[in-house]
Specification:
Layout lengths: L6 H24 L32 H8 L8 E5 L5 H6 L6 E6 L2 H13 L10 E5 L12 E4 L6
Parallel strand pairs: 1-2, 1-4, 2-3
Length: 158
């Protein structure tokens, strides 16, 4: 133990800085804004179906690919739906895969507008899925398609 910090605390802090730094590099390279830094007051949420402690924290770029690998799922012929799509980082990783369609559902109008800009402006991304739909709505309003669909939702930290 050094300076009052345990090894676990130091590793957690280091991991946070690695995630933050790699996010900054990702955003700069692709000309997008997927980083943290949005306070709960600025989210512009109209729905009453929100929990306490709501905050924006993006997934890492590779999260979707690893999730699909874990369940041995090939994206061809599937619709991909990101519930709580935020600024669209997972959507950006989904459009490089051959999904039939990519859908982002976000109940924050602020984050939804940023995601629209990110999808339109992203550079150096080979888009294999050209059908992208963004919805600023509560997920309970989403009509589930009758075609094969993959739903993605980032887990809340415990």
């Amino acid at each position: 133990m050094r300076g009052g910090k345990t090894n676990r605390e130091l590793r957690a802090r280091f991991a946070w800085w690695i995630k933050r730094g790699s996010g900054i590099i990702f955003d700069t390279l692709h000309g997008v804004d997927t980083g943290v830094g949005v306070s709960a007051e600025n989210l512009e949420i109209a729905s009453g179906n929100i929990g306490k402690g709501i905050a924006y924290d993006p997934c890492r770029w590779w999260t979707l690919r690893r999730s699909l690998d874990l369940v041995s799922l090939q994206p061809e012929g599937y619709i991909f739906v990101d519930i709580g799509s935020g600024k669209g980082k997972v959507l950006l990783s989904a459009i490089i895969l051959p999904f039939e369609q990519v859908v982002g559902i976000e109940f924050s109008s602020y984050l939804s507008r940023v995601a629209e800009r990110n999808i339109a402006a992203a550079r150096f991304i080979h888009r294999r899925c050209l059908s992208v739909q963004l919805m600023c709505a509560d997920v309970v309003e989403y009509q589930i398609p009758e075609r094969p669909t993959v739903f993605f939702r980032k887990p809340f930290p415990l």
